[in-house]
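Predict the 3D structure for this chain.
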Amino acid sequence: MPFDGTMNPVVLELQIARGRIERGWCQRRIQTLHGEVCLLGALEYTKSGEQVLTPAAAAVARQTFPKYKDLKGTPPLMLAMWNDDLSRTKAEVLAVLDQAIAAESLGVGPLN
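Done. Predicted structure below.
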């Protein structure tokens, strides 16, 4: 996929999420009235009302929590708590998205 002219769909999702965060980031809610989104809001982690880690959210989780081997059991709440930490910055959220994009583009694990 990296060299056959097709885009990795996870990388595309991550790039879209990064653009959403770049336009406006928030904490303690999925989205504000002004369109700012948290990390999970940017990743649109809900499918049919279920809380699941999409492949894009799992890619971010691998960068954020590299010690967890099996992310299938990692609840989206962990990413929400990471995003909502009062010391967290928009720059850190963008950086973890950049790491996830790079790792998924190369087909490798955590880049930390």
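The longest strand covers residues 46-47.
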